[in-house]
Amino acid sequence: MKFCVHPLLQAALLCVACASAHAATCTAPSALEAQLHAHPDIAAYTEIGAWFQQNNQPSCAVDAYRAALKLDPKSRTVIYRLAQSLTAAGDPTSAIALLAKVPRDEEISLTLANAYTRAGRLNDAFQTLTRAVRADPASARVTGALVVFLAGQNQLDDAYRIAVQFAKLHPHELEAQKLYLRVLVAVNDANTARPLARKLLAAAPHDSELLYLNGTLERKAGDYPAAREHLQQAIALTPAYGESRYDMALVLAKLHDNAGAKTQFEKALALGVTEPEAHLEYSKTLQALGDTDAAQEQLQQYQLAMKVNTDREIATAKTTEADQALAAGDAAKAVAGYRAALDATPSGSTQDAATLQYKLSLALDRAGDMAAERAALEQAVQLDPRLAVAQHQLGYLNYNSGDYVAAAQHFRLAVEDDPAFTQAWISLAATLAASSRFADARDAAAHALRLDPHNAQALELKQRLTAAQSGH
């Protein structure tokens, strides 16, 4: 079940616009360019970065924010905006590295959790949001972000529980009640949602998200004229929200305005609506308009999207079975399960495939098949060179085989991918020490201790390196 998030809350709820391709040149409005030329200070670079960010040019925003950060490396505003833009541009790993040492406030936590989510590090994202909620339990933004995250992982019961509790604690706060309403809509509790939606809209009649949610509930209830009115108002206030366009298309189709529905379907899909049913419903509208070829094309897209979803569900189920088998000590069953999951994984899901190859390598390690383990790890880093855990394990295999040069290369890639990966820093230090590169080894061990000052392995390694230095 999809949990829709309105764009007015997207920054708070970790929904980042899809990155566009980096333009050949990054050109801001002439007034901003002139301001930068006259005063090339942090404010000018930040303002241009914000313009690129707002106009869905994240790669250009990255360039502007990096220039601003050079002028003030400690600016928290620039840091989190640069991290947002890096994530939107498809580089969440760099965003994570940028935020790793920054003291966390609400904005930093939300930005970091989003980067973790986009990097596929879901447990880290969950832990980040959980800590943020504990630090500020009254914040609707971080609580809402946690609810959206849980709903996105299909943990609707937990999302519902948190939203209900938060709404009860803040009965007079609009954002808390809206959060509760979103969950009610997601779980299809129309009996509770409709009166609450009307109540909140009466209190905030120009809130585009409330207009959208009321329109959605009215559409589901078959009250199409009322739904059309509220959705029209929502679209007028927030025209770039694809879900409002999609709901409006469905309403217009029910009202037999197929031409209007066609326009809204086109805009919804252009704005990134991903529900397979959007293609099916659009196909029906095109068929009603007599455009048989276009209708057939949309039907094929629907069938393809449904197959991808089915394959992904199979892969998820097989992965869960394999995880359970590995936890139970049945390495052979885990290996078979991860291979079945890989077979079912959609061809475009390279990050999912990389993670599965890494999990397969763990099962193969337990099974004692070192050659197959190495092959799986090599596949993992080929699919996702920034998968730090896979790079680390490859380094470990090379270290055990005596190839310290290759081991160090993989450990360095691991810490480049995840600068907060303490064990990788320790492994790098040990490998450099084994190659008699004691100064570099001390630097790596010191980095590990900065991350974890009480780490027993790092402390012992530091002592040995100090003793080795004394011996020289």
Summed up, what is this model?
The protein has 472 residues and is mainly alpha-helical. It has helices spanning 30-38, 42-54, 58-71, 76-88, 92-99, 106-118, 122-135, 140-152, 156-169, 174-186, 190-203, 208-220, 224-237, 242-254, 258-270, 276-288, 292-327, 331-344, 350-367, 370-383, 388-400, 404-417, 422-434, 438-451, 456-471. Among the domains are: 188-274, Serine Threonine Protein Phosphatase 5, Tetratricopeptide repeat, CATH 1.25.40; 390-472, Tetratricopeptide repeat domain (Serine Threonine Protein Phosphatase 5, Tetratricopeptide repeat), CATH 1.25.40.
Provide an overview of this structure.
- Helices cover 75% and strands 0% of the residues.
- It is mostly helical.
- Among the domains are: 188-274, Tetratricopeptide repeat domain (Serine Threonine Protein Phosphatase 5, Tetratricopeptide repeat), CATH 1.25.40.10; 390-472, Serine Threonine Protein Phosphatase 5, Tetratricopeptide repeat (Alpha Horseshoe).
- The longest helix is centred in the middle third of the chain and has 36 residues, at 292-327.
- Mean pLDDT is 87; it is low at 1-24.
Structural class: mainly alpha
The run of helices and strands is HHHHHHHHHHHHHHHHHHHHHHHHH
Q: Which geometry do the CA atoms define? A: globular
Please tally the helical runs, counting DSSP H or I stretches of 4 or more residues: 25
Features:
75% helix; 472 residues; mainly alpha; disordered N terminus; 0% strand; Serine Threonine Protein Phosphatase 5, Tetratricopeptide repeat; 25 helices
Helices and strands in order:
Layout: H1 30-38, H2 42-54, H3 58-71, H4 76-88, H5 92-99, H6 106-118, H7 122-135, H8 140-152, H9 156-169, H10 174-186, H11 190-203, H12 208-220, H13 224-237, H14 242-254, H15 258-270, H16 276-288, H17 292-327, H18 331-344, H19 350-367, H20 370-383, H21 388-400, H22 404-417, H23 422-434, H24 438-451, H25 456-471
Helix pairs in contact: 1-2, 2-3, 3-4, 4-5, 4-6, 5-6, 6-7, 7-8, 8-9, 8-10, 9-10, 10-11, 10-12, 11-12, 12-13, 12-14, 13-14, 14-15, 14-16, 15-16, 16-17, 17-18, 18-19, 19-20, 20-21, 21-22, 22-23, 23-24, 23-25, 24-25
